[in-house]
UniProtKB/TrEMBL annotation:
Entry's EC annotation: 3.1.4.4
GO biological process, one term: proteolysis
Record keywords: Calcium, Hydrolase, Lipid degradation, Lipid metabolism, Metal-binding, Protease, Repeat, Serine protease, Signal
Annotated catalysed reactions: a 1,2-diacyl-sn-glycero-3-phosphocholine + H2O = a 1,2-diacyl-sn-glycero-3-phosphate + choline + H(+)
Family: Belongs to the phospholipase D family. C2-PLD subfamily. Belongs to the peptidase S8 family.
SMART domains: C2, PLDc
Signal listed as a keyword: yes
Taxonomy, superkingdom: Eukaryota
This protein's name: phospholipase D
Domain spans labelled C2: 475-617
Cofactor: Ca(2+)
Amino acid sequence: MMTVAASSIDRSFPSIVELGNGNILRGESLYSGKPTKRLPLVYGKGKKGAEFCTNGTLYSGLVKGKIVVCERGINGRAEKGEVVKREGGAGMILINRVTDGEQVYADPHFLPAAGLGASAGIALKHYVTSNSTRTPTASIKFSGTVYGERAPVMASFSSRGPSAVSPEIIKPDVTAPGVNILAAWPPYIGPTMLESDKRSVEFNVLSGTSMSCPHVAGLAALLKSAHGDWSPAAIKSALMTTAYAHDREGAPIADSVAENSTSATPFVFGSGHVDPEKAADPGLIYDIPARDYLNYLCGGLNYSSAQIALVSREKFTCPGKGNVVNGLQPGDLNYPSFAVIFNGGVKSNRTLKRTVTNVGIPGSTYTVHVTEPDGVSVIVEPKVLKFKKVGEKLRYNVSFVSRIGSGHSYGSLVWKSTKYAILQNQTFTNEFPILQRQNSSSSVLDTSSVGSSPHHHPSYSNTLVVEKGRNKGLWLTPSTPSKTSMKCLLIHGNLDIWVYKAKNLPKMDLFHKTIGDMFNKLPGNMSSKIEGHMNHKITSDPYVTITLSGATVGRTYVISNDENPTWMQHFNVPVAHCASEVHFIVKDDDVVGSQLIGTVAIPVENIHGGGKVEGFFPILSSNGKPSKAGSVLSLSIQYTPMEQLNIYQFGVGAGPEYTGVPGTYFPLRNGGKVTLYQDAYVPFGSLPNLELEGGMRYVHGQCWTDIFNALRNARRLIYITGWSVWHKVRLVRDDSSLEECALGELLKSKSQEGVRVLLLIWDDPTSRNILGYKTDGVMATHDEETRRFFKHSSVQVLLCPRVAGKRHSWMKQRGNVSGCPREPWHDMHYKIYGPAAYDILTNFEERWLKASKPRGFKKLKKAYDDALLRIERMPEILSPSDVCYVSDDDPEGWHVQIFRSIDSNSVKGFPKDSKQATMKNLVCGKNVMIDMSIHTTYVKAIRSAQHYIYIENQYFIGSSYNWSQYKDVGANNLIPMEIALKVAEKIRAHERFAAYIVIPMCPEGNPTGAATQRILFWQHKTMQMMYETIYKALVEVGLEGAFSPQDYLNFYCLGNREAPPSANDASRTENNGPANSPQALCRKNRRFMIYVHSKGMIVDDEKVIIGSANINQRSLEGTRDTEIAMGAYQPHYTWARKQSSPEGQIYGYRMSLWAEHLGVVEDCFKRPESLECVRRIRSMGETNWQQFAADEVTEMRGHLMKYPVHVDRKGKVKPLSKFPVFPDVGGSIVGSFLAIQENLTI
């Protein structure tokens, strides 16, 4: 026997009630007909009891052609609509009484109808009965089916615990979907089950625990078919110990019956929401013999032997002697959760015993992890369970000691192995049982249906502002951006936002208004004729931007010509901002720019506690007055802090199910292989041998050699895309037989063999060949030269026409580099084998189709021949469904996910419809769809990091909204702030964490030029913000004397210095230019930076991200650059699975990088988060900088140098006293604020 709670899915059926006073209420309905017009509204018109709309209480003359307000009670909900329709009513608004609360149901009504919660019902009745309302009116509209709601959320009709009969057993056991469930329906019964309902449907939308119970019954049957020898108790255990207690965004499951939909407890969801896949392979089970249940009936529920015999259908005698019964108590059952009652107050204690059976894999070792509830100590013995074989049983004891006098508290107990995590939740109280849940969260519900109709759905809050400590109601609050000082609070987590619709927006189209004014000045007949040709009204084109601290975090799409737009757009926004208000800015889209309509401001204080703010808010102009009478915006917003988002708590995770990064265009692909390269070419023997787990050796990859071999062996296609592809590049340089084989000749040769060769290259707008006059372009990308080289071959070169002025125009000031050797270069690369390679192919195809779209005269062609191969028609090329996957049991297997920064201006295939785009996790810009998943994966990886972060990137600028100055510069990516907050979080938890960030000593360009100096200035502001955040955390916990910010965060760069030349070399004549030129000084001092061109991050030695995106705004916002990246990990080498530092390929990759940069490998490098390692590497970096900057020229062994700034113990970042400028080349190291457009440098 199982008790099952009901929860929602992410589908709803909203209805909108618009009152004559401009207020709008949101409800539910399954009515599928047309909306009503604005009609008179009546309530309680008729005989006594007319407010309930029962048979015979309504007068036809009073309700005909009107919308009737009906209260719930006495008769059924759909039956009320039947009564209204019979008397001639045009619509119905069904309102909950106070005792019904906010739970509303989407019923298949006979006429236009909407169900509203109690708070909205109060507001509606006040509007109808108010003396100030002479002729109340309303209209009802229907939004159809809406997806993306927060789910699962516990249904309010679901029963709650604790059990009055047996409070020491948590009830319900589990939760399953029970709201808005599509279910089969007998066609001879109408969907409302009323006799008059002659509609015939084969499916109906049903709700209730009568829906959630069949889900669990079906799962039990599936488990029994898969595990025929499992007892009912074992099946129950598998379902409970693998359940989860978080929603699809990682936040705790909410309870719709609680105020503001606050988090539910084990008394509501039991062990949590069932997970079918995990239940099939639970690892451990808690089995209970049937006789133990019978003994529990004796000892726990005081059943007599005769009563039990009736149940068991066999003779049974309760254990004991005489009148003393020795049956089992609730705590004696081997139940998959714990519920403990402390009757003795403080220092009361209980010890319970459990036996687990291994149903996973032989040779498994499980370690216990306990999260103690508030006021309760938990001791588990033994702490480690070692199973030799499947079917083996082991016991453990759990002791609970109370440290509180009253109240409830909850905790968890998890048995973890390399594959499984067996979670038991604990609830403790001195008033009700102490519950220990197993596996993720649990919920409490019974198996009975509720109400007279099969349709039970969760309600929507109809309040304008929901405030804790007050009854829910319609609260009108000022919503203009505050001009007074408000409390600035840190919100670090996720914002769940809905922008529904706006009402009564002002007409903002000034151009058409001016034309209209001109028409009015014409003679009457002419004016009428011209206006007659204007077939529709021209008015505002509204959209909404959502901002925090001046940073835009969300944006709706534009709706043309609508003063009453409906967006119904959902946002799940990661935030790491200090803010006093969240601003919803309504704008009118114009041909050039936009106009401000008004703003709604939600104080952060109202959402900081996790409560939901929802309703209609007046849109106010900058002077605090309404932009137009009755102008309102409908929205909802709820904040979930980081500590409640389970998705970020365990790194990559222990499996067996991995979700990757949610909310992205491409999903996680299992069963692949990845090769990591730290440079294009690694000379043989230049790096030390590194040992991995299991005695394996790390292999230093040869990137360009592997590329050459892949091209040479290609049989059907070669697709290449890049910012620059130079045909003269030689990929192999250590093989004399291949030294003369340049890239261009190789590609020509392959195309002649029948291989389709396509090159998609950035089109530098400054490189041209016009009437024989050639310009190379300021970026020297060789784009025109490459196109000319392949012009008469079968290699097809497409220059991507995307304008990159915002990205590249500042590079015009690169300066003269003649007289210097080629700049040393460091980069990170990767190769993917397996399913994720198809996502990279999709990216190329989408970009090629967009770039090859006919333009100008090419549009006149009747047909356009696409060069892309149709690989699905080629049997020798495996389709994604047939590709060879690496087995999950292969320890060298990889999981890979592809990410992008790109928009619909650069790809063909993004949905144009905003709802479809949202389903593909695209972000809406101004008339453009954006894939920002690179930013998403960086944020996810940083938030999930548990030990350290290592970054190499060409730029590091961001989180300008939290700088001390220039907050509005627009570099709003979250990455720097997320790193700083991660360190601060670990400091407050008294845990070690380290962040290593490697950047170029100086950005590409002239170090003294305005653009480069501005970049360095923004970089300095970013560093300063991060160190200040860390110092504040140290002060909070009183550790500022023991540690400095640099014990957690350090910036580095790469450089080299060569020994003086020999006499023969010194005798050479070199063209150094002027003696004091940067070129001459570099040669004289024999030092130069190694340019860091990498774009990668390694987290906890278990995850790696590598791609083309810089950590700056133009690479991450998705509308300026086109970038791609991959995130990958080895599921057999994660912290959660190993319960120790993983030493797989990612570990070897990091150690190899550090060996190259530092010239040595030391034991402390194995624990990069340790204080010893942080201080050792910083010391080595400082020594390397001193050697680099010294007057004496000496050969450098290591190349990693501490970035040349001084960071004091309070986190203040200043120039070095001896080196305020870069050696030899000049330019302030901390930059300078020079007059140049910001978007060129962020």
